[in-house]
């Protein structure tokens, strides 16, 4: 089956309610602070089986199914359950990295290190979906034959993304990470060595990052793509069970999973899980109350979650910061946005609290160059005292300064392209236009485009002013280097700043965590004072609710952590499971 088609805005909006209803029917803390990781079950008292039913966007494929070429979080959340990596994050907020395919943490050679030796687990085998799904083996499965994963697969998966001659080169958005690798040596069947060009402090992160998936070479076609469902064969805890566009993504238990360091626990405990595409608050509320969904998070209006928590005080209620955010991107190499005065005027004109109120009913936080849930972000007390982020009387001073700068820049007309995903972004376009018209006294036009056209516009440089929702990342380097380095793979701004390049390279060379953090703060201050190519606005706070029978519930704060569902289970002994539809 070929990968799902891209969606036009009309087809996307028109399909929301009907698809969500069909998918649900067919399935038979402190504000802004995420939940601490739960204790893992030890195998005693666990009831096995059942299909976990969750809300999500995994069924909306916005660019490609290829796990190395997609840049959109929902789909690589599914990838993270299907494909393994050399390393993985055990706790993304605390930066705790542990083993996945690696038998132990890499051996580090040199001070500072230039070589990393990885010894892989033996006996890790690629999926054999036909044996679980009761279907004939596909061509891809037959080609792989359930063979063992080896060091050659690790080498191939990284070299593929490093290739400078691939016809898909522009779509390898993580190539900025692997450019630090000088060569990859296969020592033996289970040992691989990475030799770096220069010391790189986040290199272990690169091996654990959300898209560092290890894939079998047999599924990559002659055009260097694996953009089809049949190619989704990995070694992760779940197998690809099928995807229905704008309805659901279904994963099933991998009975041969290697189980990290606890294979005797025979995880996953679940028979599988389904991510139901239901971007509608009323539908999610009804599905949760009838226990057709085991957990929910609000889509646009969180008030129903708050009411639901009152109605069912026994539910697991978590408020969690999220790594995604809304931002503006500007082309700074062409007029009028090559004028820093204009960029500052736009930055100062934005009422971030008004954006938070309009998009998420007040449940959000202002966002600087790095997401505020992360150790790397500027401290809140500093960010919120800066122009553009201030409230009260200081906000009025920012408005006056914005108007003055806009006039000094020549008062050019502004044409803004808004993404259609999530739909509330496009719906906010008119309000945002009015804010700029009132504050800057500007002539402003807005248009709403499909998200894939926004992404293509960034790649080709055809959209000089965009307003969109974006994924977030884990490490400082991912937030800054690919966007703002002159050679960055996501530098849609066409920015070239030698001073900024030196700072971005310096944080990569710094192995002391606190000192690296301080360099990161210096970069963020410089971006806010002297660059403003990406104007960062706000991030949502997600309000979650989960029934108590859903054990080891972990609300995701980053896309790409669905492998954690290997620890989840449905407690059939808990009274709250009464009334839950079978499955």
Compile the SSE list and pairings.
Blueprint: H1 9-25, E1 51-55, H2 73-82, E2 87-91, E3 96-99, E4 107-110, E5 113-119, H3 129-133, H4 139-144, H5 151-162, H6 175-178, E6 181-188, E7 191-196, H7 203-208, E8 238-244, E9 248-253, E10 272-276, H8 281-289, E11 295-297, H9 303-311, E12 316-321, E13 325-330, H10 340-349, H11 352-360, E14 364-366, H12 380-383, H13 392-408, E15 414-419, H14 423-427, H15 429-440, E16 444-449, H16 451-460, E17 465-470, H17 476-484, H18 498-509, H19 513-531, E18 534-546, E19 550-551, E20 569-570
Parallel strand pairs: 1-10, 15-16, 15-17
Antiparallel strand pairs: 2-3, 4-5, 5-7, 6-7, 8-9, 9-10, 11-18, 12-18, 13-17, 13-18, 14-18, 19-20
What is the averaged pLDDT score? Answer: 92
N-to-C CA distance: 26 Å
**Low-confidence regions:** 1-39
Contiguous helical run count? 19
* Shape field: globular
Overall structural class, as computed from helix and strand content, comes to alpha+beta
In CATH, the topology of the largest domain is named D-Maltodextrin-Binding Protein, domain 2
Rg, Å, rounded: 24 Å
**Any idea what the CATH architecture of the largest domain is?**
3-Layer(aba) Sandwich
DSSP strand content: 15-25%
Biggest sheet, open or closed, and with what strands and sense? 8 strands, mixed
Q: Please give the number of β-strands.
A: 20
Number of domains: 2
CATH class of the largest domain: Alpha Beta
Tell me the helix content. 25-40%
CATH superfamily of the largest domain: Periplasmic binding protein-like II
């Amino acid at each position: 089956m070929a990968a799902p088609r891209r969606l036009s805005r009309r087809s996307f909006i028109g399909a929301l309610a009907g698809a969500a209803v069909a998918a649900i029917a067919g399935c038979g803390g402190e504000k802004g602070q995420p939940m601490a990781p739960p204790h893992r079950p030890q195998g005693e008292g666990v009831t096995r089986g059942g299909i976990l039913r969750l809300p999500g966007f995994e069924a909306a494929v916005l660019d490609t199914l290829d796990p190395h070429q997609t840049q959109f979080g929902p789909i690589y959340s599914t990838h993270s359950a299907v494909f393994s990596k050399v390393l993985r994050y055990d706790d993304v907020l605390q930066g705790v990295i542990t083993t996945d395919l690696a038998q132990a943490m890499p051996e580090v050679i040199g001070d500072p290190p230039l070589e990393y030796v990885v010894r892989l687990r033996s006996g890790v085998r690629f999926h054999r979906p036909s044996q679980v799904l009761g279907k004939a083996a596909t061509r891809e499965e037959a080609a792989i034959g359930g063979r063992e994963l080896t060091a050659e697969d690790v080498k191939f998966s990284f070299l593929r993304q490093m290739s400078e001659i691939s016809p898909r080169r522009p779509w390898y958005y993580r190539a900025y990470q692997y450019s630090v690798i000088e060569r990859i040596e296969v020592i033996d069947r289970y040992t691989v060595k990475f030799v770096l060009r220069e010391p790189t402090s986040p290199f272990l992160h690169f091996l654990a990052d959300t898209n560092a998936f290890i894939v079998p070479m047999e599924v990559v076609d002659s055009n260097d793509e694996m953009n089809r469902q049949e190619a989704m064969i990995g070694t992760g805890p779940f197998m690809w069970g099928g995807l229905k566009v704008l309805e659901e993504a279904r994963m099933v238990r991998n009975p041969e999973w290697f189980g990290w360091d606890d294979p005797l626990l025979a995880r996953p405990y679940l028979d599988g899980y389904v991510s139901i595409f239901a971007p509608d608050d009323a539908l999610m509320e009804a599905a949760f109350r009838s226990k057709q969904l085991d957990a929910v998070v609000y889509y646009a209006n969180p008030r129903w979650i708050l009411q639901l928590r009152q109605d069912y005080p026994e539910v697991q209620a978590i408020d969690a910061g999220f790594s995604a955010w809304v931002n503006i991107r500007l082309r700074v190499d062409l007029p009028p946005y090559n004028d820093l005065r204009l960029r500052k005027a736009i930055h100062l004109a934005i009422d971030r609290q008004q954006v938070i109120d309009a998009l998420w009913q007040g449940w959000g936080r202002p966002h600087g160059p790095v997401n505020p849930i992360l150790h790397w972000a500027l401290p809140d007390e500093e960010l919120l005292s800066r122009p553009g982020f201030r409230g009260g009387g200081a906000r009025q001073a920012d408005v006056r300064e914005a108007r003055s700068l806009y006039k000094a820049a020549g008062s050019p007309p502004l044409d803004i392209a808004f993404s259609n995903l999530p739909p509330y972004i496009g719906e906010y376009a008119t309000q945002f236009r009015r804010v700029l018209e009132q504050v800057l006294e500007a002539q402003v036009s807005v248009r709403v485009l499909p998200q894939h056209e926004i992404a293509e516009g960034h790649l080709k440089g055809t959209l000089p002013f965009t307003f969109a929702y974006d994924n977030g990342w884990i490490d400082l380097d991912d937030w800054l280097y690919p966007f703002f380095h002159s050679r960055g793979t996501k530098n849609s701004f066409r920015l070239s700043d030698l001073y900024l390049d030196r700072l971005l390279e310096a944080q990569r060379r710094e192995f002391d965590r606190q000192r690296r953090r301080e360099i990161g703060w210096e970069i963020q201050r410089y971006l806010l004072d002297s660059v403003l190519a990406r104007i960062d606005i706000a991030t949502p706070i997600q309000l979650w609710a989960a029934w108590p029978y859903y054990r080891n519930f972990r609300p995701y704060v980053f896309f790409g952590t669905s492998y954690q569902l290997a620890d989840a289970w449905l407690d059939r002994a808990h009274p709250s499971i009464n009334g839950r539809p079978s499955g």
